[in-house]
Amino acid sequence: MANGRDRREPSFETPETDAGALDFRLSPEDRAGGRMGQKRASQGGGASSPRRAPRTKKAKRRRGGGSILRRLTYGAVVLCLWGIIAVGGVVAYYAAQLPPIDQLAVPKRPPNIAIMASDGSLLANRGETGGQTVALKELPPYLPKAFVAIEDRRFYDHFGVDPIGIARAVFRNVTNRGGLQGGSTLTQQLAKNLFLTQERTASRKIQEAILALWLERNYTKDQILELYLNRVYFGAGAYGVEAAAQRYYGKSARSVSLSEAAVLAGLVQAPSRLAPNRNPEAAQARAELVIAAMNELGFITPGMTKTALGAPAQPVRQRGAGSVNYAADYVMDVLDDFVGTVESDIVVSTTIDPAMQSAAERALVDELDAKGQKFNVSQGAFVAMQPDGALRALVGGRNYETSQFNRATAARRQPGSAFKPFIYLTAVEQGRTPDDVRDDSPVNYKGWTPENYDRKFRGPVTLRNALALSLNTIAVKLNLEVGPKAVVQTAQRLGITSPLQANPSLALGTSEVTPLELVSAYAAFANGGTGVIPYVITQVKTTDGKVVYRRPAGGGLGRVIDPGAVAMMNEMMHNTFVIGTARRAQIPGWDLAGKTGTTNDYKDAWFMGFSGSLVAGVWLGNDDGALTKRVTGGNLPTEVWHNFMKVALKDQKPVPLPGSEYFQRAPADVPVASAGELPSGAVPRESGWIQPQPARHGSREKNFFEKLFGL
Q1: Which terminus of the chain has a lower count of CB atoms within 10 Å, N or C?
Q2: What pLDDT, on the 0 to 100 scale, is given for residue 64?
Q3: Non-local CB neighbours of 405 within 8 Å, separated by 6+ positions
Q4: All residues at 6 or more sequence positions from 39 whose CB lies less than 8 Å from its CB, including other chains
Q5: How many of the other CB atoms lie within 10 Å of CB of 334?
Q6: What is the spatial distance between Cα 621 and Cα 639, in angstroms, rounded to a whole number?
Q7: In what order do the strands lie in the sheet with 122-126?
Q8: 351 contacts 607 by C-beta, under 8 angstroms
Q9: What sign does the dihedral 125-131-134-136 (CA atoms) show?
């Protein structure tokens, strides 16, 4: 038996184990013996099988290096597989938070309401988007290409998510080349706008990518681009390229120039910072990048590039106080009565005349700018309509941007003496005439002692001159004579819908009304006695031409004043322009009639006036009820009215007032009175008025009034 030194440890190597590995397990003696045996075998001696030559150190190093490389490769593959599994798990998790793919659908775009003027021009857009939907084929080719060039130049090549674009953005961000870059495609941006919130989180980005893949699978590239252009936000409440073009350039997206298209494309990156009307320098710098990108990609020619860079886009500047928005707001207030819920884009045709709207705004704002501070008056309202009730201009305040409250339709204020025609009409319908005389003397009704504007009394005065000079004492006496309840019924019959208090002070206009309803009531005098319901909408149709609503002919309240009474009232209110408080509002060649109004404490000042073709009313005052510095209906409101009417009637042929053939003109030798004064002996001659009959109403009209006013 061999001694311990000759003992060999058992080997677990397979027969294929190489010599090097075997040699590693032998004792030094065995290794020496083995080498000698190998040498003898190489020299031809012995009968044992030859052994392979030992590996050199270089071979061993090469073998060790290959083993490390294989191990690293194997580790990388395993890590990659686990990474894919992890990413897949994360994607699956966030995908599960989305609605089922088979139930997914592009949300319907909120409808737009295009409000058109009487001449077909656009007044305003209303709705959540601020503009209509436009088809891709309707746009100039360079407009969508501008968005592709600056936002996603590989739009037509990727599958919704662009790895190359992401890598390029990461590289530029790391190397700080070209500013901070984003890797989202147009499809991803659309997915975010359609389905997700604006939060910037990893989960939202993952869902964005999933939804982008869904969009690419279900829509063509052009469909995706069209959806994007109609949904992306451009700032200032404008969603979609049409709304943005109207907002910033006052034109349709179908008509924008290349330089304007470049600004719009650059704007979506940061709408508030790059708005051309707020930061034109930054907007233009961004537009130049867009144009350069379009040129680089061959979307535009060098000549187009040079032209666009040489003629930067100029945003439209809003003119005036934006009063057209008051009219648009009123359209929206009444639209539900005709079309109900709006499901798709519609076009609303209105009666608003752009020229008259502009003239009304200018007359009101210019007067307040020039004299508002001096007279401590800060606000106003203006309404103009045709005698049939069609609104032609509506200004609800001094500046829409600073205050959207519509004083023309929603503010109830005391009309003062502008309410007196309803008292005189009631008296005429009960048998009085303009030549009837009443005593201008002190009044004391249960301790209430109203006075005239100038605190003077004139003795006997005809009703004609009492109304023209706006004498309070006679109005109060006449109100008590005919009965306040009868006056309330008269006013309601003509269209006043605000609550009226049937009391003695009603004669001085203490019950509040809106400018719109007061002008509407005066329209009955201008049209010969027909009550009107003011209207502004003539037609509503969808963008493809389907008529949703068309205003029927007529639609008024029917006859509410007897023709004879209309003639008397118009004669008396015409006298206001001849000897009374509205003399400064005269327009040569035109028969005009109307009435001023001032509250006792100078809080409110009015003027209501009309020709045979147009009725208009003005209110001036302060929202907080602060007293003006003696603003009366005969000064500032009359000036506003006159400045408007001379523009509105300039190109019209004069139209006589109903009943004007019976007017009693002031004698040529009678001097004209100032407001609140009547020269001695200025009572006009007898006019021989025929006794008028109270207005008669058929059962249909009577039932209507009973239902509407509770009579």
Answers
A1: N
A2: 58
A3: 396, 397, 411, 623
A4: none
A5: 13
A6: 15
A7: 122-126, 113-116, 346-350, 537-542, 547-550
A8: no
A9: positive
Tell me the pLDDT tens digit for each residue of 290-336. 999 999 999 999 999 999 999 999 999 876 679 999 999 999 999 99
The pLDDT value given to residue 168: 67
Pick from 555, 561, 526: nearest CA to 645: 526
Is pLDDT at 359 greater than 60 in this prediction? yes
d(CA 520, CA 388): 9
Q: Is the pLDDT of residue 17 over 50?
A: no
pLDDT over threshold 50, residue 703 = no
Q: Which residue has the higher pLDDT, 184 or 245?
A: 245
Residue pair 376/603 in contact by the 8 Å Cβ criterion: no
Q: What token pair was written down for 478?
A: 């006449």
For the stretch 504-563, pLDDT in tens is 999 999 999 999 999 999 999 999 999 999 999 999 999 989 999 999 987 789 999 999
Tokens representing 270 are: 């940061």
pLDDT of residue 52: 53
Q: E strand or H helix at 242, and its extent?
A: helix 241-249
Strand intervals (E) in 447-526: 459-462
Q: Whose CA is closest to 246, among 355, 127, 334, 150?
A: 127
Question: Measuring CA to CA, which residue among 565, 532, 531 is closest to residue 659?
Answer: 565
Q: Which two tokens stand for residue 464?
A: 């004609």
For helices 258-267 and 241-249, the axis angle rounded to 10 degrees is 110
Dist CA 193 CA 215 (whole Å): 12
* 505/420 Cα distance (integer angstroms): 11
The closest alpha carbon to 594, from 664, 686, 523, 516, belongs to: 523
Q: Name the region of 157 (left: φ>0; alpha: ψ -120 to 50; beta: rest).
A: alpha
CA distance 614 to 653: 12
Q: How many CB atoms lie within 10 A of CB 5?
A: 8
Interval 361-408: pLDDT, tens: 999 999 999 999 999 999 999 999 999 999 999 999 999 999 999 999
Name the percent of the chain lying above pLDDT 70. 77
> Please, which pLDDT band fits residue 87 given cuts at 50, 70 and 90?
low
Q: Write the burial class of residue 426 (CB in 10 Å: 0-12 exposed, 13-18 middle, 19+ buried).
A: buried
| Nearest-5° Cα angle at 615, 611 to 619 | 125
Q: Phi and psi (nearest 5°) for 590?
A: -115, 135
User: pTM of the prediction?
Assistant: 0.76
- Tell me the C-alpha to C-alpha distance, in Å, between residue 252 and each of 114, 125, 313, 528, 697: 12, 12, 15, 43, 51
**So which residues are the catalytic ones?**
151, 417
Helix or strand (DSSP H, E) at 517: helix 515-526
Mean pLDDT, range 339-343, rounded to an integer:
85
**Per residue in 638-689, pLDDT tens?**
999 999 999 999 989 999 999 887 665 444 333 333 333 333 222 333 333 4
- Measured CA to CA, the distance from residue 630 to residue 552 in angstroms comes to 45
**Amino acid identity at 150:** I
For Cα atoms 164, 166, 170, give the angle at the middle one, nearest 5 degrees: 115
Contacts of 434 (CB under 8 A, 6+ apart): 428, 462, 463, 464, 568, 571, 572, 664, 687, 689
The rounded distance, in Å, linking the Cα atoms of 458 and 242 is: 65
H or E element at residue 59:
helix 57-96
